[in-house]
Amino acid sequence: MSSDPFLLLALATAGISTTLIIWYLVRRPVLSRLTKISLLFGIGILPIATATNGNVAGYHATKTTHFCTTGCHVMTPYGEDSLDPGSLSLASRHARNAAFGEENCYSCHADYGMFGTITTKIGGLRHVYEYLLHYHSMPIEESLVKIDLLSPFRNDACMRCHSTENQLWNQIGDHASTREQVRAGTVSCASEGCHGFAHPFSKAARRRVGVLP
Amino acid sequence: MKIPRLLALWRRSTESLLRAAAILTLVGLALMVWSMLDPTPLPVMLAMSLGQVLGTVAFAMYGIAIWKDLLRIRRARRDSLTNIPVVSIPVAPVAPVAAEPATAPKTREQAAP
């Protein structure tokens, strides 16, 4: 459990609300003005505060790698690779960067822009829907072959940090020659020949079954 | 919710409505707390959907119960003011009093010692 202040506030308001409700249910007091005000807090104000703070805490929780990799079994290998200190995959190398911290999945997979958070969360709901209906019982080895991103990974996510404007970046010949294609998204940073796949083990599984050459 | 069901909700006593609201709130709170202690997709989604629906329904039931109680109090107050029973009290006949001789009232000067 984290020390998120929203989480602590939500737990505190939930505790007080529960106490007031149990007092009402057990003691069954006369419906006086004091009882009505107590119930207004117990049933109305404090649970609303719990829901509000709980939503913010839940929103923070849904951004963590723990959330992404523990809820659905098909994400287990991605989480293990991401947290493996010996892995050289693009995802793992970024996960070791302190700037990504505990939110390394979200940092790269979140949409960019003003409504990026909203579209990311709607996309996340789609993932849950697909998982519950189609992939819930799928073996992990099979999921590595069959489950794919809904749309190709966009370079925008990389360009949040690697702007392509930096002089050092442009001094590298491959960058300079593909700069416009990288910006347009026609050449992926996370592709073979460039920086390699972000999660190469899934490509290895596809090669094993002959899906990839 | 259909209208007959709403009417059935309205007919329930204030106490039973409040008890139901309290229990629904407890269930909603339990879902929310579960999602906070175990932030995995299922609890988080349940808390943000079912938990909040239960909480909203409970608060609405609380509102209905309090509204009903206020109406009851207002009705009782109105009845106590308007429905005063008209009672005819029999009055005993008064015996005639013998007339006293008329005396002129004393002036202030006369009354003073």
Written description of the protein model:
The complex is a heterodimer of chains A (213) and B (113). Chain A is mainly alpha-helical. Chain A has helices at residues 5-27, 33-61, 65-70, 76-83, 90-95, 104-109, 116-135, 140-146, 155-159, 167-171, 173-184, 200-208. Chain A has 12 helices and no strands. The longest helix of chain B is centred in the middle third of the chain and has 42 residues, at 41-82. Chain B is rod-shaped, with a radius of gyration of 34 Å. The model of chain B has no long low-confidence stretch (mean pLDDT 83). The A-B interface holds A 1, 7, 10-11, 14, 17-18, 21-22, 24-25, 28, 31, 36, 39-40, 42-44, 47-48, 50-51, 54-55, 57-58, 61-62, 64, 66-67, 70-72, 128 and B 14-15, 18-19, 21-23, 25-26, 28-29, 32-33, 35-37, 39-42, 44-45, 47-48, 51-52, 55, 58-59, 62, 66, 69.
| Strand-pairing-aware structural class of chain B | mainly alpha
Estimate the strand proportion of chain A: under 5%
Distance between the termini of chain A: 44 Å
Q: What global shape of chain A is seen?
A: elongated
Keywords, please?
heterodimer; A: 213 residues; mainly alpha; 2 domains; 12 helices; B: 113 residues; 4 helices; 70% helix; rod-shaped
Describe, in short, the structure shown.
Chain A is built from twelve helices and no strands.
